[in-house]
Design goal:
The protein is of the alpha+beta class and 84 residues long. The chain has one domain. Helices cover 61% and strands 17% of the residues. It has two helices and four strands. It has a two-stranded antiparallel sheet with strand order 1-2.
Length: 84
């Protein structure tokens, strides 16, 4: 049995975290790596094409950041809550 900080953790066949179902197999590892890679590519492109532009105000940059990341995080959280 696995213990973390002295607390025994129950072993399960599958569990859901942030809308992704994890199983004891490694099938999801490739999916997660692909999604992480795609997200990283988007962030790099945004940084290169938007956030480094001196012509744009910090207010505009913050507005873009909030519309892309804060709203998508909130919508993902809502999706997870209603699926549970």
């Amino acid at each position: 049995m696995l213990q973390v900080s002295g607390i025994a953790l129950q072993q399960v066949e599958k569990f859901k975290y942030l809308g992704v179902v994890f199983t004891s197999g490694e099938r999801r590892n490739k999916e997660i790596a692909t999604l992480t890679g795609k997200a990283n590519a988007v962030l790099c492109e945004l940084h290169r094409s938007l956030f480094t532009k001196r012509e744009l105000s910090n207010t505009t940059k913050l507005s873009v950041f909030k519309s892309l990341f804060v709203r998508s995080t909130q919508s993902q959280a809502a999706k997870i809550c209603f699926e549970a």
